Amino acid sequence: MSEVAKALLVDDRRENLLALEAILQGLPVHSVAVESGEAALKQLLVDDFAVILLDAQMPDMDGFETASHIKRRERTRHVPIIFLTAADRDAQLALRGYAVGAVDYLTKPFDPWVLRAKVSVFVDLWTKNRQLVAQSEVVRERNTQWRNLTDAVDEATRLLRSENTDAHERAAEILEQARWGTTP
């Protein structure tokens, strides 16, 4: 699996985005930075993300409204959101963040190592989920192949039980095709 996990960074201040990108440097994650809630929603239409770091207080569409839109969409409702805010430690804002679906709420200044650890957990979960999806697909393909092979053997057995010599030749053909993975 060569797909790299992505983190969506959403903050209206460019310097904050640069700081977040620096904090995440060296993690197995590709950062995608946008400067508004609207831009985040557009980005979520084209990319899948392991985690979203979302500024709570932005002009126009704030982080809470953005998160609310994210959680309403089927495609994005399970993407973990970590709110980041410069607001003082107002418990009501944190509760509002959790109410719209955030998995965490950090106030600035926060410890960059803690943020890295949190992002790492979500990147690991995303990666493991992708691996499970891929393994599930392999199992589905093998089950289909097994069903096809079983059907071919059943058909060959039916033909071999018949008295018809042409049927015996057809049964041999079916078994040969099944042996090479082609369907009759």
TrEMBL record:
Keyword Phosphoprotein part of the UniProt annotation: yes
Chain ranges of the Response regulatory domain: 6-123
One GO BP annotation of this record: phosphorelay signal transduction system
Alphabetical list of Pfam families matching this protein: Response_reg
Residues modified as 4-aspartylphosphate: D55
Alphabetical UniProt keywords: Phosphoprotein
PANTHER family: RESPONSE REGULATORY DOMAIN-CONTAINING PROTEIN (PTHR44591:SF3), STRESS RESPONSE REGULATOR PROTEIN 1 (PTHR44591)
Protein name in UniProt: Response regulator receiver domain-containing protein
Organism: Micromonospora pisi
